[in-house]
Amino acid sequence: MTREFHQIPETDPTQLLRLRDSIYAADLLIAAVAWLDFFSWLSGNPSDLDQICSSLGLARRPADVMLTLFVAMGLVRKVHGKYYPSDRATEHLVKGAPWDLRPYYESMKERPICKDMLRVLKTGKPANWSSKAVGVDWNRAMRRASFARDFISAMDSRGAYLAPIMARTLNCSAYRALLDIGGGSGIYACAVLALNRRMKATVVEKPPVDKVARWSIAQKGMQHRIAVLGRDMFDELPHGFDIHLFSNVLHDWDEKSIGLLLKNSFAALSPGGMVAIHDAHLNQKKTGPLLVAEYSVLLMYSTEGRCYSIAEIRDILDETGFEHTEVAQTAARRSLITARKPR
Question: Total domain count for the chain?
């Protein structure tokens, strides 16, 4: 069965995506209950993020992801910067509760992934990709051609659904040259150009992913309109482009790295140009959506990043010098954040 780039399926695969993206969320809850007895501790010590990290010996990034998940699950509430257990957590996950479910969770605490999750919570360092007993984290694994090919193929299959909807949402009528930064297989650039016949594009990917991108773009018949530049996206970006796209890229990195990427984008983007960030974003107050909070656990576990809120991305854009930030929803709880470089 073949399809055009602008086509979308008749059925919605969001729940299928969620089943894959949420696989580590349960292990994070088990680790918090069974290894940290987190809710019992929090019941007697309502605290802010910094206090939770220092008291329990947790790294800030995974602790932030954990708290966001528990807020989205209705197990924790945040009041004036401090976190408290919800009524549900108090009745079922706190020591001494008449309906204490902690022993039920403790029966799963020896699962290897659960132990890995505890290690990530304590160190902040990602575990091996896909919880393999022998291996490396995602960033280092991407340096191997075989892993890069398989990973990019996986992301391309997801992009077949997400890319056309993102492309419909992104207004490119005033622009002519797209730089797809960390563009993977190039499927998002392909989708944008399929709807904008006068545009050209370049995908930036470092070796060995650049070879995968060239092959994938050629398979889609777009090699005459889309070039591939083999370069680390953290290095200086090429000039001459009036749209920069980061699609499902920033969530793999910490805030410092995101700041560098957007700083490089601002420096290279043509005056009046637009930066577009397509990703799974948390809402302004980081209370959900639950699907995104669950996905953030996978990212926290496997990469150096997490899902960021719309407010967090907006703040980094503002600090970098971008203006006129706008947000639009796309598909599967993804959203498109755009901002412009002053003329």
Answer: 2
Whether residue 46 lies inside any domain: the answer is yes
**Is residue 135 situated within a structural domain?**
no
Structure tokens at 283: 């809402």
Q: What is the CA 29 to chain-centroid distance, rounded?
A: 20
Read off the pLDDT band of 133 (50, 70, 90): low
Taken in order 132, 135, 136, 140, the sign of the CA dihedral is negative
Range of the domain at 100: 15-125
Structural contact between residues 304 and 257, judged by C-beta atoms closer than 8 angstroms: yes
- Considering the domain boundaries, does residue 209 fall inside one? yes
Q: How far apart are CA 180 and CA 165, in angstroms?
A: 16
Whichever domain contains 154, its CATH number is 3.40.50.150
- Collect all residues with Cβ–Cβ distance below 8 Å to 7 and sequence separation of at least 6: 164
**Chosen domain end from 90, 125, 160:** 125
Tens-place pLDDT, residues 282-325:
999 999 999 999 999 999 999 999 999 999 999 999 999 999 99
pLDDT at 1: 39
In sequence order, what are the residues at sequence separation of 6 or more whose Cβ sits closer than 8 angstroms to the Cβ of residue 167? 5, 6, 188, 191, 192, 194, 195
CA 237, 238, 242: angle at the middle one, nearest 5? 100
Which of 29, 59, 24 is CA-nearest to residue 130?
24
Same domain, 110 and 165: no
What is the DSSP track for 232-255?
-TTSPPPSS-SEEEEES-GGGS-H
Q: How far, in whole angstroms, is CA 196 from its chain's centroid?
A: 27
Long-range own/partner contacts, residues 107-110 (CB < 8 A, 24 or more apart): 108/30, 108/34, 109/30, 109/31, 109/34, 109/35
Q: Specify whether the CB–CB gap between 302 and 113 falls below 8 A.
A: no
